[in-house]
Structures are given as structure tokens and as C-alpha cells.
Amino acid sequence: MSSKDSVSRTLLTALALCLVCSIIVSAAAVMLKPAQEVNKALDKKRNILAAAGMLEEGKSIDEQFAQISTRVVDLRTGKFSDDVDPQEYNEKKAAKDPAQSVALTAEQDQAKVRRRENYAVVYLVESTPGQYDKIILPVRGYGLWSTLYGFVALEADGNTIAGMGFYEHGETPGLGGEVDNPRWKALWPGKQVYRDGSVEIGLIKGAVDPQGADALWQVDGLSGATLTSTGVTNLVQFWLGEDGFQEFLNNLKSGEV
Predict the structure, then answer these.
(1) What string of DSSP letters covers 2-24?
(2) CB of 125 within 8 A of CB of 48?
(3) How far is 161 from 163, CA to CA, in rounded Å?
(4) CA atoms within 13 A on the CB side of 112
(5) For residue 95, which of 113, 81, 80, 112 has the smallest C-alpha distance?
(6) What share of the chain is helix, strand, coil (3-state, %, to 5)?
(7) Is the confidence at residue 131, as pLDDT, over 80?
(8) 3-state class (DSSP) for residue 144
(9) Least confident of 15-19, 34-38, 146-150, 151-155
(10) How far is 218 from 55, CA to CA, in rounded Å?
(11) What residues does each domain of the chain span?
């Protein structure tokens, strides 16, 4: 056998192996996709429950989530909308589509998201119809290295924070990544968002003085992560401000949703 034939056979064998492997990988991806989608949905529910301080370990996520209703809010009017299906709607995709979002000016774009989608999916805990015990809102914004995606939960007054947490980000472990630290997240419940109608909640450098006049509107900054801390402040203030959910929260309190 010539060396040329040997090389050709080797190349054909390698090509055949690559083809077989690609078919196996593609088939596995297709077969596993339904399970991946189920796990993704469960993880999202888990994060919503955790942000609201309602997660009970060891219990079914679906059973716990049954007490939460999912609604769509038109951010242009601050009112509920049935124009889109909350189960199918994708805020990330909508924010990139000029037909489904609005461009933000530099002054408006505090959270550095560039565009704000027209609709947002929110999560509500109702004690009785129309009476909301908790309001869980999606938030996002740029930190140091990445866009942070999470949820802020408010009590019935639409002003007191019940909890918050991020489910996706690429911040530095041990620094900005401390947004995942349970001890830091435990600092948020009980804090106030608004003062005299303006969004005042934010992270400060260092630790909050519990006796300080502004303590209710302050959260400890992340040590060694100034830009991530600033990003968290900006994203919370943007989404709870007039270009985010503030009008919706006002309508909710007045019963005009």
C-alpha cells in the first residue's frame, strides 16, 4: 500500500468518525432539550421564590410556585396587559427588537441596558383577589464585567423590599460575585425604595450605620467591587424608577391596573 493511500484512508476514517460523533451529539441535544427546558423553568421559579423569601428547601418548587400568579405589564402605561403570553414572552429578545422596545437616552439609561422592552412579566402573591402580599419584579443592568439578571421582591406597600437576588451574571468571584452571598442578600429585606416619591435605595461604600438618618435606604457595598456595587444601585434605581416599574406600582396601590 502506498503512503498516499494510507494518508487518504486515515483522512476518510477521521472524517467518518467526526460525522458519527456530530450525529450522536446532535441527537443527544435534541433528546435532552425538553428536560433542559423543564430544568430551566424550575430554576427560574426557584429564583423567584428565593428573591421573595418564600423558598422552602425540600418542598416541590411547582407546589410552592402555585401561590404566585404571573402577569404581563405594559411598561408604557404601567398597567396589566393581555397582549402577550407570559409563558412565551422573552424579555431579552424583546429588548433587542426595535419593534418591541424603546431606545433609552444616555440620561435615561442608568442601568446601561440600551433598550427597554415594552412589556415585562411580573409575579404576584395575592392574599385575596386584587390584594397583593408580594410583588416580584425582574431587573437587570451592567456591573463590572457583565449584565446582572435578577428579581426584586416588594411587600404589599410597593415600597418595602422583601428580598432580592441575581440568577445570572459574570462578576468576579469573591468580589462582585458576592451578590450571591446569602449574608449580603439578607441585608435587603426591610429596606425602603422611595422617599418623597423618589427612588433612594442604593449601595454605599462600606457598612451602613444602623442609626443613621438614611439607613432605611442604604445597603452595604460589596467590598473591593465598587463598579459592581454601582451597577447594582443603578439597575435597582432604574427598574424601580419612572422608566421602569414605578408607574405600575403606583397604579397597583391605587387599584388602577
Answers:
(1) -HHHHHHHHHHHHHHHHHHHHHH
(2) no
(3) 6
(4) 16
(5) 113
(6) 35, 25, 35
(7) yes
(8) coil
(9) 34-38
(10) 25
(11) 67-254
